[in-house]
Each structure stands twice: as structure tokens, then as C-alpha cells.
Write a structure and sequence with these properties.
The protein is an all-alpha fold. Helix content is 80%, strand content 2%. Its main location: membrane.
């Protein structure tokens, strides 16, 4: 009886902490994230950087990060004061999941692209250096965006609102979907970009 009461109190405490974090921490992250990315966009869109392939990639990355922050935190911030619409409205849940996962995958791959661009530009091989162009950067940015959006197309099927036996109300509705989402995000959005950044970063250092 005492243990049950303790567990209930702990759950209530954790729930209260979560609500407070949604109310205030999300606002803090949103403010600084938006301001930081807007400043990046302002600086990198200057005429001086328009012909620089690496600057263009970082500009695209700033736009993507801005979209990720806005789409990911708006509903969380709303949920801190009232009902989170992503938890109760199916199409918002699905659309938010797709945008958040897609943008969080696009962003690190754009950094990989920038790392590869620096490696090409620092190469002693003239043929490789000529591949570091604005046109190539734009082309590969488009490829990354399209593939990332296709990668998480299953979100429109897998994610559902008003779920009860899941960590979140807006969540994968089946175990297969959960494994697919976790593996694709962990492998493609985290591990693979990290390894490639390290690899091409080291190759760039060797070139220099």
C-alpha cells in the first residue's frame, strides 16, 4: 500500500516536471534556436558568400534546422499550457513526425556534404578540386532532402494520435514501426553521418 502510494506520487511528480519543462525549457530552446538560425541565414545569405559552395550548404542547413525547431517545439510549447494538438489530431501528429524526423536527418547529412566539399577543395588533385562547385552542392543538397523525406514516408502510416500504451500519445502504432523508425533514425541520421564526418574530416586534415 505504501509502495503503491509512493509510485503514484513519483509518477505525479515526473508528470509535473515534464509539464514545467514543456512550458519553460521548450521556450528557451525555441528562442535561442530560432534566433541563432535566423542570424546564420542572415549572415550566410550575404552576397559575399553566395558563390561559396560550403557557405551555401550551411545556409541550407540553417533553414532545415529552423524548420526542425519550429515544427518540433511549437506543439510541445502549446502542450505545456493546454492540450498538445499533435497528441489528439491525427494529421498533425503524422505531419509533425515526418517533418521532424526528415529535418533531423537532413541537417547532419548536409554537414557531411560540407565536410566532403572541404575535402575536395583541399585536395592536391585538380580534378577533385573542380568538383567543389556551387552547382554540385545544390544538386546534392536536393538529393539529400528528397531521400530523407522518402525515408520517413512511413510516418504517415506508422504514427498515430491518441495512443495510450505508448511513451507518447503521438507515436508509432506498431512494434514493427517502432523498430523501423529507431533503426533508420539511429543508423542513417546519427551513426552514418558521424562516421563520414570523422572520415572526411581526417582526410581534410591530411590534405592540409
Amino acid at each position: 500500500m505504501v509502495k503503491s502510494s509512493y509510485n503514484e506520487s513519483l509518477i505525479e511528480l515526473l508528470h509535473t516536471i515534464t509539464i514545467q519543462l514543456d512550458r519553460y525549457a521548450a521556450n528557451f530552446i525555441f528562442l535561442f534556436g530560432v534566433v541563432g538560425n535566423v542570424l546564420n541565414i542572415f549572415v550566410l545569405s550575404q552576397r559575399t558568400f553566395r558563390s561559396n559552395s560550403c557557405a551555401w550548404i550551411f545556409l541550407a542547413s540553417s533553414f532545415v534546422n529552423l524548420i526542425s525547431i519550429v515544427s518540433g517545439l511549437i506543439t510541445v510549447m502549446i502542450g505545456g499550457w493546454t492540450t498538445n494538438p499533435a497528441n489528439t489530431i491525427g494529421w498533425i501528429c503524422k505531419l509533425r513526425a515526418h517533418i521532424v524526423f526528415s529535418t533531423r536527418t537532413i541537417a547532419p547529412w548536409l554537414i557531411v556534404l560540407a565536410t566532403i566539399d572541404r575535402w575536395l577543395l583541399s585536395s592536391i588533385n585538380a580534378i577533385r578540386r573542380r568538383k567543389s562547385t556551387l552547382k554540385n552542392a545544390q544538386r546534392w543538397t536536393a538529393v539529400i532532402i528528397i531521400l530523407s523525406m522518402l525515408l520517413y514516408a512511413q510516418m504517415f502510416y506508422c504514427y498515430e494520435a491518441n495512443l495510450t500504451d505508448t511513451p507518447l500519445q503521438c507515436y508509432d502504432k506498431t512494434a514493427v514501426c517502432r523498430y523501423l523508425t529507431d533503426l533508420s533514425f539511429g543508423g542513417i541520421a546519427v551513426v552514418a553521418p558521424l562516421m563520414l564526418m570523422i572520415l572526411f574530416g581526417l582526410l581534410t586534415i591530411i590534405n592540409v
